[in-house]
Amino acid sequence: MLRKILVANRGEIACRILRTCKRLGIATVAIYSDADAQAPHVAMADTAVRVGPPPVKDSYLNIEAIVDAARTTGADAVHPGYGLLSEKKAFADAVAAAGITYIGPPPAVLDAFGDKITARAVAAAAGVSPPPGTQGAIDPAEVDTITREAERIGYPLLVKAAGGGGGIGMQIVTDPQKLARAVQACSDRGRQAFADPRVYLERYIEKPRHIEVQVLCDGQGGAVALGERECSVQRRHQKIIEETPSPAAFFQGAEGEARREKLLADALRVVTSVGYVGAGTVEFVASQTGELWFLEVNARLQVEHCVTEMVTGIDLVEQQIRVASGERLAPEILAPTRRGASIEARIYAEDPAKKFAPQPGRITRLAWPAAGDDLRIETGVAEGLDVTPFYDPMLAKVVAWGETREAAVNRLDAALAATTLDILGPVGPAATNRSFLRKVLASDPFLAGQYDTALAEALAKG
């Protein structure tokens, strides 16, 4: 087993990883920027190292400083968490070059799935179809080629940045007259956000559902898909509520169960075809009738991994650590038992009435409901600390479990209702999305399980 792990992240995911390390008796190192000097993850770790000033590029994306922190503290492994450097091949390479274990997929796998165009090709070669689209990148200057490709694929279209994520560098196009402009805009956004101007076209699935599959692979022949997660409640193409199992009608009954089993098998085929190691998520887009197409692979832990943990009893961070230590996946992991349903809501300092604009400020009052077997509170903030404009404004994840979906939803709603969270902004009280999350949970489409990715933004407008 690894002896000392540096967590190359911040906030709730850093706290989450540190908690499992402590349970396993593994020494820990936290990193922090000046803005996070008093953050809970800093206090939780055995050792904490400053890596730079508040801007993320100067601290949490500072590969040299992070690797140096691991080296000087004697860490024998680095866990990247999610976001930030978690899918960057350059970071994994730097960690390995320092003689330190990287808790995640090999650099070659990160390379394959870090590029959406390459990922489409990997999936297709494994026999898992992505939505119809271009075979490679398109040049924004080649308007005639773009027009021909769009006509071949058919409208509506998605223009997507090859290195994008979180909805950045992506536009829906329904009008051919607006295609060239959208291609150029996405290319410019990709260059700015990811230093990668390449874009491609893909058929847009109308009224889509976002379904993903949690996988675990030990690199020694052991691989398992731990079930699907429904992630269709989104704003700005980013998830805010996730649940498992998916309540979609096309997963019900014997035919639905067969569709689910095929989905899990497809997810495993994609990742095992490139020698995947560790935890990851294979994402799919689904039509309302249950046609499923490959979207991408997130070669890391996902924000919403907790709902899978709640129904399987498997600590995914522990499994990441064990696999990185050279262990095989245990028989009980390869043949998991799923029980009940789980649902997660992400609490953000943002205003749904203002297009979900972030709301920085100071947390003046904070009280969570009591956690237990049916409720988890995953957070990295505390009363008296600031929600800064430097980082993502997610404050916490509230994760509920129940014997049935209805019980899980009710438990989550009760927990949100029992939460006290006040933020004082520069000019007065700042908003959070807590009440809006309850509005989603109470909506008829959500309660019926018959919703798509447009639900949250439609409710915000209404």
Automatic annotation (TrEMBL):
Keywords: ATP-binding, Biotin, Ligase, Nucleotide-binding. It holds the Pfam family CPSase_L_D2. The keyword 4Fe-4S does not apply. Residues 1-461 form the Biotin carboxylation domain. Residues 120-325 form the ATP-grasp domain. This is Methylcrotonyl-CoA carboxylase biotin-containing subunit. The keyword Nucleotide-binding applies. InterPro entries: ATP-grasp, BC-like_N, Biotin_carboxylase_complex, Biotin_carboxylation_dom, Biotin_COase_C, CPAse_ATP-bd, PreATP-grasp_dom_sf, Rudment_hybrid_motif. It comes from Chondromyces apiculatus DSM 436. It comes from the Bacteria. GO terms for molecular function: ATP binding; ligase activity; metal ion binding.
